[in-house]
């Protein structure tokens, strides 16, 4: 695993009052549109297990989510407490 800077600002992908394990992301150093700038991803329940990708791949993933490319993963999952699937995204 690549070295993870200790001073990252982690952003949780959940409402502030949400409970349960959630995904957090942090953006590493990079200038402007630097597609090779690192992006770090972890789960709140296991914060020492960090996955690293780059900004170009992260942006492609976000565009895919916005376009509905992954909606089939949650088809048939009931919405509970405002979040599909209950406590986990």
UniProtKB/TrEMBL annotation:
Annotated stretches, region: Disordered: 1-20
Protein name: DUF397 domain-containing protein
